Amino acid sequence: MKRITFLLSILFIAQLVFGQEKLSQEKVQIGVPYPVVDAGIKKYFTYKNLIISVKVDRGKFFLQTYNTDKLTLEKVAVFEDFPRGFRIEKFIELKDRIFILYSLWDRATEKEKFFTREIDPLKCSFVEKGKKLLEVSGKISSRFSCLTSHDKGKLFIQYRNKAKFRNDSKNKDVIGMWVYDDNLQKLWGGDIEMPYTEEKMDNLQYTINSDGDVFLLAIVRDLDAAPVLSERRLIKFAGPNADITEKVINFPEGKSGGNLSFFEDGTGSLVLAGYSGTTEVAKINLGKGDGDFQFDYYDIPLDIINLNLKARKVKKNNKKESKNKTVGLSNLVPTNLYLHNDGSMVVVGEQYYVVVHTSTDANGNTRTTYTYHYDDILVTKINKDGSLAWMRKLPKRQHGKKPQGSMSFKLIEGVDDLYFVYMDNIKNLGLGDDDEPVRHADGKGGFLTAYKVGYETGSVKRISLLDSRNIKEMKMYQFKLSRISSVTPDEFVFEVYKKKKEDVLIKVELK
Hints:
Layout: E1 2-4, H1 13-16, E2 19-22, E3 28-30, E4 34-35, E5 41-47, E6 50-57, E7 60-67, E8 72-79, E9 87-94, E10 97-106, E11 111-120, E12 125-126, E13 131-137, E14 145-148, E15 154-160, E16 174-181, E17 186-193, E18 201-208, E19 214-222, E20 229-237, E21 245-249, E22 259-264, E23 270-276, E24 280-287, E25 294-299, H2 302-306, H3 311-322, E26 332-339, E27 345-360, E28 366-382, E29 388-394, E30 398-400, E31 410-413, E32 417-424, E33 440-441, E34 447-454, E35 460-467, E36 484-485, E37 491-497, E38 502-509
Parallel strand pairs: 1-25, 2-35, 30-33
Antiparallel strand pairs: 3-38, 4-38, 5-6, 6-7, 7-8, 9-10, 10-11, 11-12, 11-13, 14-15, 15-16, 16-17, 18-19, 19-20, 20-21, 22-23, 23-24, 24-25, 26-27, 27-28, 28-29, 28-30, 31-32, 32-34, 34-35, 36-37, 37-38
């Protein structure tokens, strides 16, 4: 195990005095308006210099393609030939191809059927009718879960069959697992019984590697031990007739699984990355899953924790630190794992939590509401050899009554920089290093802002991009981060509503 700690305060200089600037409005372009499509589902993809949107409204599919140079709507096509009662499972990309995955309960045959349908971006059309990939007799007890490998060359479809026994001490989950190549040819598939009962086993996360092997991160409990012994295990599946292999992940003393994401990196190694408690970034290299594991932990320094906090909070943290009490960043969730072609990795996390509000009126009626919070971003670059390159905290505060919307952030890749684009409160335009950000409320306008982080050095600059209420005298509506697409490094394009039953594209050049 390697434990990496900052020792020299000079490493913090780039973080503590990051610059701030306002983007020239010459770098913001507004496209030609076009008729709005109202739909509950809107997904956006890129293909060469095109953006492709899929908008679904009560079974009607709208395909649209946009020219990102001219910022114009190029083609529109409408399809109403999906079967009645279908359910969208996921939109995926395999290599350079875009697919809609959907399922259908066939009441006549009492089977769950799973289909895929490919989109042709150039023709703004579907390639063909839906292609059935698999079917399951009877109802399944979960929705279909779909994952792709890191190289986008393999598709993994997983579901849980109905339990044979209601008693967890007797029942072993039977999981349907199906693996396909990028041409959707089946490599292997079938029902696989888990090696332990539900009482002894919790399935945490799946991933699939570029060879088509499936790995499960699970907790396995020894109920006969006193106290009960719980272990994290890496379980490998290579087909319904292949042996199931498993390896125990022996975390170093005092460490636990924490909040980790499970994935394959660009070299074919399996990796767990995220956070060990509130005080450390964790990276666990599982290699090929054969038991040769490397554990690396990186302290989150107090200087970073205290950045952009109120003076009383800083004082409180310093006092706790002096008494050797734990000081950390709570509610960190790994959100992005950026893999560079030089073998380095950037682990990105965000402070995300939900506050539950319950009230009772005079008549005894209870009402529960929720507030969703998206706060600071923590960015950590880890070199290929496992050493720490740099760590940065990007302060922000956002809350709303529904998940995401205009909250959280969008990661945009540049040639030399990473950009973290988010909606901010106008009162933060002059935010200083010692100021705690004012909260942005979802749906209340705001300034679109970006943190520009230099990939090599971790230098940080805060850039005010545009005022959502006055973009060259236009006010934008219905902004969502999910509508941002990036075709060219250091720039992005997004679609918004501009009133008068019209949508429009906006391009932002970041460099």
